[in-house]
Write a structure and sequence with these properties.
The protein is elongated, with a radius of gyration of 19 Å. It has a two-stranded antiparallel sheet. With about 110 residues, the protein is mainly α. A hairpin with a 5-residue loop joins strand 1 (about 90) and strand 2 (about 95-100). The chain has a domain at about 30-100. It has helices at about 1-30, 30-45, 55-65, 75-85; strands at about 90, 95-100.
Length: about 110
């Protein structure tokens, strides 16, 4: 009886969740910076002539830390790709992504 009462609201909730995921996936597929990031990760770890990688590998990139333990390899790659694309993106102290209002570039 409880199942029947909750069925319609659950279906509506699931449809909304799938729609949100679909919109998010479409947004990622059309973002040039995200595509460049995936390309850089593929090139960095490519041994042979691999055409792609499993996205779960991105989780491993966040596990690889710098020697001081403050930054992950994923953050470094994102920052490098953003800089090479001429974007004013930086990673702040909280490791969230944001736009650098000064648009200054760090010296190499």
């Amino acid at each position: 009886m409880l199942f029947i009462e909750n069925y319609d609201p659950e279906v509506v909730h699931l449809k909304e969740s799938f729609q949100t995921l679909e919109i998010g996936c479409k947004e990622l597929r059309t973002r040039r910076l995200f595509l460049k990031l995936l390309e850089a990760i593929l090139k960095a770890g490519n041994r042979g002539n691999t055409q792609g990688f499993n996205l779960s590998a991105l989780l491993k990139l966040s596990d690889i830390k710098s020697t001081d333990g403050n930054a992950a390899l994923l953050h470094f790659v994102v920052e490098q790709v953003a800089q090479s694309e001429g974007r004013g993106f930086v990673i702040n102290q909280n490791r969230s992504f944001g736009r650098n209002s000064t648009r200054s570039k760090k010296p190499n």
